[in-house]
């Protein structure tokens, strides 16, 4: 932990305090995570009996969990639902960001403010009417919406939309107009200039918005618990139900090892995405705080 | 609804085009001559329509639902008539007192839930603060391993909430869970301390889990705040002989104040809306002491099947958050998004 003397005044805490505190903090963070890993690597019996199982760790849970839960089904559903929703949110959000940033029209400010303001609407104030609305349409047209892919995808897409639009909007405003104007002068149509010149330059903002929109769908429990069924349930719901089964086994042995192995597997995509895009994401994480559906 | 440049956001949105008068026609750009004849009459910018799909979905899946929930909060809707709820009998405002003071299937009224939610969200924010502040202060200066440490600090925040709730459910098991075994080993509490079946212990189990999970959020904002403090001020203070405590007290903490206010506010709102943690941590029947407002509404609707009263509670929730949300829009404007975009741009430049 050598700090160059030139930046000595950057050091805000004395080294001793800093080191001791960091050690405590690392234990605080690592203990639950190591416990999660230990559980995932322990036979179901040892977990249920609270035994110390470090001596017989096993990877067997990672084999048995697939049959103990419909984990694969949940993972596939999550990838489909969160993935499609994220792609749509980015495409629609980036498309909307362009006129918002470059043109002036009457709906501009109302739209921007609605997008920003929507982030503080409580999720349940949207879930209830969406559920009632879909139930009403089902009753009217005799079609099935609640529990099907399109409804939940459209919902997640819409929740990813505000952040995607706003991030692309702000990014675009900081980008010089010269390039696209040059393309326009050279005879491109506005839409062609957008596709060939603006979109490639906006790629970083679109990637970040896409990751966030994906996480909205992957992490959500509230909307999925009401708007999916056993065929379309996301991995969050698969695990929630599996956890519920284990806490109500009434004497039978709870499959905590399988449960935690499955939980570990379902957090891997999120952690990998985070590590891959970390540089882009840290500030965005803060921005995304209010977009939690 | 006009396109006046001096809209309430003033600085945040309109500064980019201060030179343009609010003319009804589109700005005179060279491409404009090539607008297709069909559009000539309206002299409209076709690219404006790029915002239409987003606006449409937003209207249908956010705008209209908000109107519907306001309407259904005045109706009597149960499981039997939800499919043709438009014909549901009118209940007037009677759903509101029933929501605020009447018990839901868990036996908790909305007002009681608001009180629980407030305690939960403010305690979680306040108790996260020292952890977040220490973490931000200790990784501000450059040292070997800083990037790794910063990554580790964010792990609790990026792991899905449902995973952490499931882990906490096992962690707080009586007799077999590690919390009870540790407490018993340290002779602090009995190994058979029951955490998740009600009372203050359940509330604290939920709050402690929430703190562990979400403290990095405040840390992130404080770290951003630290980066805005000019290094010269700290150097000058060092030259004047100020120690770390002096610099912290007279320079760092005062300048972090504004950012902390924002962090406090956002973090509290974030906790206030957390549904996943109590929903998963306490299984099928959350005890009354953890019946936060989102749980209250969910159980009204999807367990008690009283969609009218649930809608009234949801509207109450919206109104409760409307004031802080308006303050947020006013104070923060686009700041978080602007920071995100700036960071993305900086990182993209570095990567190139």
Q: Any overview of this molecule?
A:
- The complex is a heterodimer of chains A (293) and B (352).
- By secondary structure, chain A is mostly helical.
- Chain A has helices at 15-40, 44-48, 61-68, 71-102, 108-118, 123-141, 149-173, 178-185, 190-201, 203-219, 222-227, 235-247, 256-287.
- The model of chain A is unreliable at 1-5 and 286-293 (pLDDT under 50).
- In chain B, helix 6 (146-158) packs across helix 9 (199-227).
- Chain B has helices at 11-14, 37-40, 52-72, 95-101, 110-138, 146-158, 161-171, 178-185, 199-227, 231-239, 244-272, 276-281, 293-302, 307-332, 335-351.
- Chain B is mainly α and 352 residues long.
- Chain B contains 15 helices and no strands.
- Helices cover 63% and strands 0% of the residues of chain B.
- Chains A and B meet through helix 1, helix 4, helix 5, helix 6 and helix 7 of A and helix 3, helix 5, helix 6, helix 7 and helix 9 of B.
- The assigned structural class of chain A equals mainly alpha
Count of all domains of chain A? 1
Share of residues in strands of chain A: under 5%
Just give the CATH class of the domain at 105-303 in chain B.
Mainly Alpha
Question: Tell me, what's the shape of chain A?
Answer: globular
Work out the helix count of chain B: 15
CATH class of chain A reads: Mainly Alpha
Find the CATH topology of the domain at 105-303 in chain B: MetI-like fold
DSSP, total strands of chain B: 0
CATH architectural category of the domain at 105-303 in chain B: Orthogonal Bundle
| Helical stretch tally of chain A | 13
- Per CATH, the superfamily of the domain at 105-303 in chain B is MetI-like
Q: Quick one: biggest sheet of chain B? A: none
Query: Taking Cα atoms only, what radius of gyration of chain B do you get, to the nearest Å?
Result: 26 Å
Mean pLDDT value of chain A? 84
Query: Secondary-structure element order of chain B, as H and E?
Result: HHHHHHHHHHHHHHH
Fraction in beta strands of chain B: under 5%
Separation of the first and last Cα atoms of chain B: 43 Å
How many whole angstroms does the radius of gyration of chain A measure? 24 Å
The chain-level mean pLDDT of chain B equals: 83
